[in-house]
Design goal:
The chain has 230 residues and is an alpha/beta fold. It has eight helices and six strands, in the order βαβαβααααβααββ.
Protein backbone atom coordinates (compact mmCIF):
# COMPACT_ATOMS: atom_id res chain seq x y z
CA UNK A 1 0.00 0.00 0.00
CA UNK A 2 0.93 3.65 -0.39
CA UNK A 3 0.61 6.20 2.40
CA UNK A 4 -0.16 9.89 2.75
CA UNK A 5 0.86 11.54 6.02
CA UNK A 6 -1.42 14.50 6.70
CA UNK A 7 0.45 16.96 8.91
CA UNK A 8 -1.33 19.80 10.64
CA UNK A 9 0.66 23.02 10.88
CA UNK A 10 2.19 24.16 14.16
CA UNK A 11 0.46 26.69 16.37
CA UNK A 12 -0.37 29.87 14.48
CA UNK A 13 -0.40 33.41 15.90
CA UNK A 14 -3.74 33.84 17.64
CA UNK A 15 -4.41 37.45 18.58
CA UNK A 16 -1.75 38.86 16.26
CA UNK A 17 -2.36 41.14 13.30
CA UNK A 18 -1.34 38.28 10.99
CA UNK A 19 -2.68 34.92 12.17
CA UNK A 20 -1.06 33.07 9.26
CA UNK A 21 2.38 32.57 10.73
CA UNK A 22 3.74 30.24 13.37
CA UNK A 23 4.08 31.33 16.96
CA UNK A 24 7.31 30.60 18.83
CA UNK A 25 5.59 27.47 20.16
CA UNK A 26 4.59 26.55 16.61
CA UNK A 27 8.22 26.75 15.49
CA UNK A 28 9.29 24.44 18.31
CA UNK A 29 6.46 22.04 17.49
CA UNK A 30 7.54 21.88 13.86
CA UNK A 31 11.13 21.09 14.78
CA UNK A 32 10.10 18.38 17.22
CA UNK A 33 7.75 16.98 14.56
CA UNK A 34 10.65 16.73 12.12
CA UNK A 35 12.72 14.80 14.64
CA UNK A 36 9.87 12.30 15.03
CA UNK A 37 9.25 12.02 11.29
CA UNK A 38 12.92 11.31 10.61
CA UNK A 39 12.55 8.07 12.54
CA UNK A 40 9.40 7.04 10.66
CA UNK A 41 9.99 8.07 7.07
CA UNK A 42 13.34 9.82 6.57
CA UNK A 43 12.94 10.15 2.79
CA UNK A 44 9.33 10.63 1.63
CA UNK A 45 8.76 10.26 -2.09
CA UNK A 46 6.68 13.43 -2.38
CA UNK A 47 6.26 16.49 -0.17
CA UNK A 48 3.25 18.77 -0.65
CA UNK A 49 2.31 22.03 1.09
CA UNK A 50 -0.82 24.07 1.09
CA UNK A 51 -0.33 27.66 0.03
CA UNK A 52 -0.55 29.20 3.50
CA UNK A 53 2.48 30.60 5.29
CA UNK A 54 1.88 28.48 8.38
CA UNK A 55 1.95 25.33 6.20
CA UNK A 56 5.24 26.30 4.63
CA UNK A 57 6.88 27.43 7.85
CA UNK A 58 5.95 24.10 9.43
CA UNK A 59 7.38 22.23 6.46
CA UNK A 60 10.61 24.23 6.46
CA UNK A 61 11.26 23.68 10.17
CA UNK A 62 10.30 20.00 10.09
CA UNK A 63 12.38 19.24 7.01
CA UNK A 64 15.37 21.07 8.47
CA UNK A 65 15.13 18.87 11.57
CA UNK A 66 15.10 15.86 9.24
CA UNK A 67 18.19 17.07 7.40
CA UNK A 68 16.20 17.57 4.19
CA UNK A 69 16.17 20.67 1.94
CA UNK A 70 13.18 23.05 2.10
CA UNK A 71 11.68 21.79 -1.14
CA UNK A 72 8.07 20.88 -1.81
CA UNK A 73 5.18 21.15 -4.23
CA UNK A 74 2.62 23.86 -3.43
CA UNK A 75 -1.03 22.96 -3.95
CA UNK A 76 -3.61 25.44 -2.65
CA UNK A 77 -6.31 22.76 -2.67
CA UNK A 78 -4.80 21.74 0.68
CA UNK A 79 -5.54 25.21 2.13
CA UNK A 80 -7.76 25.65 5.16
CA UNK A 81 -11.27 27.04 4.83
CA UNK A 82 -11.66 30.82 4.98
CA UNK A 83 -12.24 31.41 8.68
CA UNK A 84 -12.59 35.16 8.11
CA UNK A 85 -15.55 34.63 5.80
CA UNK A 86 -17.17 32.13 8.14
CA UNK A 87 -16.93 34.58 11.05
CA UNK A 88 -18.05 37.54 8.93
CA UNK A 89 -21.16 35.71 7.69
CA UNK A 90 -22.02 34.63 11.23
CA UNK A 91 -21.51 38.11 12.69
CA UNK A 92 -21.17 40.88 10.07
CA UNK A 93 -19.76 43.32 12.64
CA UNK A 94 -16.66 41.16 12.80
CA UNK A 95 -15.74 42.02 9.24
CA UNK A 96 -13.87 44.74 11.14
CA UNK A 97 -11.24 42.82 13.08
CA UNK A 98 -10.93 45.69 15.54
CA UNK A 99 -14.54 45.12 16.64
CA UNK A 100 -13.86 41.43 17.23
CA UNK A 101 -10.67 42.21 19.13
CA UNK A 102 -12.48 44.76 21.29
CA UNK A 103 -15.32 42.34 22.08
CA UNK A 104 -12.86 39.62 23.07
CA UNK A 105 -10.86 42.05 25.21
CA UNK A 106 -13.96 42.65 27.33
CA UNK A 107 -14.09 38.98 28.34
CA UNK A 108 -12.14 37.30 31.10
CA UNK A 109 -11.00 34.50 28.80
CA UNK A 110 -10.53 35.83 25.24
CA UNK A 111 -9.39 32.49 23.79
CA UNK A 112 -12.39 30.67 25.24
CA UNK A 113 -14.75 33.41 24.08
CA UNK A 114 -13.35 33.25 20.56
CA UNK A 115 -13.57 29.45 20.49
CA UNK A 116 -17.21 29.51 21.60
CA UNK A 117 -18.10 32.06 18.92
CA UNK A 118 -16.06 30.30 16.24
CA UNK A 119 -17.66 26.93 17.00
CA UNK A 120 -21.10 28.46 16.39
CA UNK A 121 -19.89 30.10 13.18
CA UNK A 122 -18.41 26.85 11.86
CA UNK A 123 -21.52 24.95 12.92
CA UNK A 124 -23.63 27.27 10.80
CA UNK A 125 -21.26 26.79 7.88
CA UNK A 126 -21.43 23.00 7.87
CA UNK A 127 -25.08 22.45 8.82
CA UNK A 128 -26.19 22.56 5.17
CA UNK A 129 -28.96 25.12 5.66
CA UNK A 130 -27.01 28.20 4.59
CA UNK A 131 -24.72 27.05 1.77
CA UNK A 132 -25.70 29.95 -0.51
CA UNK A 133 -24.32 32.44 2.03
CA UNK A 134 -20.70 31.36 1.43
CA UNK A 135 -18.22 31.65 -1.40
CA UNK A 136 -17.04 28.14 -0.53
CA UNK A 137 -19.70 26.17 1.32
CA UNK A 138 -18.82 23.07 3.32
CA UNK A 139 -19.67 20.60 0.49
CA UNK A 140 -17.46 22.55 -1.94
CA UNK A 141 -14.62 22.61 0.58
CA UNK A 142 -14.89 18.85 1.09
CA UNK A 143 -14.92 18.24 -2.65
CA UNK A 144 -11.82 20.40 -3.15
CA UNK A 145 -9.93 18.52 -0.46
CA UNK A 146 -11.06 15.07 -1.60
CA UNK A 147 -10.04 15.84 -5.18
CA UNK A 148 -6.56 16.84 -3.99
CA UNK A 149 -6.26 13.67 -1.92
CA UNK A 150 -7.52 11.34 -4.66
CA UNK A 151 -5.21 12.90 -7.24
CA UNK A 152 -2.18 12.59 -4.95
CA UNK A 153 -2.91 8.95 -4.13
CA UNK A 154 -3.38 8.16 -7.81
CA UNK A 155 -0.12 9.85 -8.71
CA UNK A 156 1.90 8.19 -5.96
CA UNK A 157 0.99 4.64 -6.80
CA UNK A 158 1.66 1.50 -4.82
CA UNK A 159 4.35 1.50 -2.13
CA UNK A 160 5.11 5.24 -2.27
CA UNK A 161 4.55 7.82 0.45
CA UNK A 162 3.93 11.53 0.76
CA UNK A 163 3.95 14.23 3.42
CA UNK A 164 1.20 16.84 3.13
CA UNK A 165 1.52 19.96 5.29
CA UNK A 166 -2.00 21.30 5.71
CA UNK A 167 -4.62 22.38 8.26
CA UNK A 168 -7.00 20.86 10.78
CA UNK A 169 -10.15 21.48 8.79
CA UNK A 170 -8.70 19.67 5.79
CA UNK A 171 -7.76 16.66 7.91
CA UNK A 172 -11.18 16.68 9.58
CA UNK A 173 -12.92 16.76 6.21
CA UNK A 174 -11.09 13.69 4.93
CA UNK A 175 -11.42 11.76 8.18
CA UNK A 176 -15.14 12.57 8.50
CA UNK A 177 -15.76 11.35 4.97
CA UNK A 178 -13.89 8.08 5.51
CA UNK A 179 -15.54 7.46 8.89
CA UNK A 180 -18.99 8.59 7.66
CA UNK A 181 -19.42 11.08 10.49
CA UNK A 182 -22.44 13.30 10.91
CA UNK A 183 -22.27 17.07 11.43
CA UNK A 184 -22.09 16.98 15.22
CA UNK A 185 -19.34 14.36 15.28
CA UNK A 186 -17.40 16.24 12.60
CA UNK A 187 -17.52 19.40 14.72
CA UNK A 188 -16.21 17.54 17.77
CA UNK A 189 -13.43 15.96 15.76
CA UNK A 190 -12.30 19.27 14.33
CA UNK A 191 -11.61 20.76 17.76
CA UNK A 192 -9.42 17.82 18.81
CA UNK A 193 -6.82 17.88 16.00
CA UNK A 194 -3.57 18.87 17.70
CA UNK A 195 -1.06 21.27 16.19
CA UNK A 196 1.75 19.49 14.31
CA UNK A 197 -0.07 16.16 14.64
CA UNK A 198 0.08 13.42 12.01
CA UNK A 199 -2.81 11.50 10.46
CA UNK A 200 -2.15 8.69 8.00
CA UNK A 201 -4.09 7.58 4.96
CA UNK A 202 -3.23 4.30 3.29
CA UNK A 203 -4.43 3.42 -0.17
CA UNK A 204 -4.45 0.66 -2.75
CA UNK A 205 -6.46 -0.16 -5.84
CA UNK A 206 -9.28 -1.06 -3.47
CA UNK A 207 -9.60 2.46 -2.08
CA UNK A 208 -8.37 4.88 0.56
CA UNK A 209 -8.48 4.10 4.28
CA UNK A 210 -7.83 6.07 7.44
CA UNK A 211 -4.98 4.28 9.20
CA UNK A 212 -4.26 6.66 12.09
CA UNK A 213 -5.71 9.98 13.22
CA UNK A 214 -4.27 12.89 15.19
CA UNK A 215 -1.04 11.22 16.31
CA UNK A 216 0.93 13.52 18.60
CA UNK A 217 2.80 11.19 20.92
CA UNK A 218 5.98 13.04 19.90
CA UNK A 219 4.78 15.83 22.23
CA UNK A 220 4.12 13.62 25.23
CA UNK A 221 6.48 13.06 28.14
CA UNK A 222 9.25 15.65 28.26
CA UNK A 223 7.67 17.62 25.39
CA UNK A 224 4.13 17.74 26.78
CA UNK A 225 4.21 21.55 27.02
CA UNK A 226 4.09 21.56 23.21
CA UNK A 227 0.60 20.03 23.01
CA UNK A 228 -1.77 22.72 21.71
CA UNK A 229 -4.93 22.71 19.67
CA UNK A 230 -5.25 26.38 18.63
Amino acid sequence: MGAVYLIRHGQASFGKADYDQLSDTGMRQASRLGEALSLRLPHPDVIVCGGMLRHQQTAAKALAAMGLPPEWETDTRWNEFDHDEIIRVYEPRYANHAVLTADLARTLKPRRAFQDMFAKAVGRWIDGAHDDDYVEAWPAFCTRVKNASDELCGRLGRGRSAFVFTSGGVITSLAADLMKLGTRETMRLNWTIANASVSKLIFSDRGVYLSTLNEHAHFEGEHRELITYR
